[in-house]
């Protein structure tokens, strides 16, 4: 989501955790909206009841108290969401760092593989030279044996 190298798969479970946090944040937002909606309905109901049974001052005091409670809860849920977003961002940065490390290691492996191929080729050439030298020695040996007869 924030520029992670797609060539490197996330650690198993990380994508699920990210989805889970996102879903939880959405659920909290829905809960806040539902709570505000219920509070508005509740305030309307209380308003009618209080109009009939209490003074205007009492009604205002109760509504302010309810509003403060709703704002406190809303602030608490908002803070929880911010905390989770911060943890998600931190995890994404760690994932990006691991991906970068993996990329670096992959490049090192490619260099080592290239070096090994080169060394293997040189070894094959040495082997061929050695075989040729052994063949030459055998021919010289045969020639010497023939001359000594």
Give structural notes.
With 149 residues, this protein is an all-alpha fold. It is 89% helix and 0% strand. The chain contains 2 helices and no strands. Helix 1 runs antiparallel to helix 2 (56-148). The longest helix is centred in the last third of the chain and has 93 residues, at 56-148. The chain is rod-shaped, with a radius of gyration of 39 Å. The model has no long low-confidence stretch (mean pLDDT 88).
Architecture blueprint of SSEs:
Blueprint: H1 14-53, H2 56-148
Short account of what is shown:
Helices cover 89% and strands 0% of the residues.
> H/E series, N to C?
HH
Beta-sheet strand percentage?
Answer: under 5%
By DSSP (H or I, 4+ residues per run), the number of helices equals 2
Number of strands: 0
Q: Averaged pLDDT, please? A: 88
Which structural category fits the helices and strands? mainly alpha
Share of helix among residues? over 70%
Distance between the termini: 86 Å
Largest sheet: none
**What is the alpha-carbon Rg in Å?**
39 Å
Q: Shape from CA axes?
A: rod-shaped
List low-confidence stretches. none
Search tags:
149 residues, mainly alpha, 89% helix
């Amino acid at each position: 989501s924030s520029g992670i190298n797609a060539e490197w798969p996330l650690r198993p479970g990380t994508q699920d955790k990210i989805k889970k946090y996102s879903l939880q944040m959405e659920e909290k937002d829905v809960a806040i909206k539902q709570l505000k909606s219920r509070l508005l309905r509740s305030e309307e109901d209380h308003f009618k009841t209080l109009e009939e049974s209490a003074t205007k001052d009492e009604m205002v005091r109760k509504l302010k108290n309810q509003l403060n409670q709703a704002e406190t809860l809303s602030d608490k849920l908002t803070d929880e969401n911010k905390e989770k977003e911060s943890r998600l961002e931190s995890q994404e940065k760690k994932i990006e760092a691991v991906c970068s490390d993996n990329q670096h290691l992959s490049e090192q492996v490619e260099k080592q593989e290239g070096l090994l191929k080169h060394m293997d080729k040189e070894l094959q050439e040495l082997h061929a030279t050695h075989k040729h030298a052994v063949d030459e020695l055998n021919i010289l040996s045969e020639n010497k044996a023939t001359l000594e007869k």
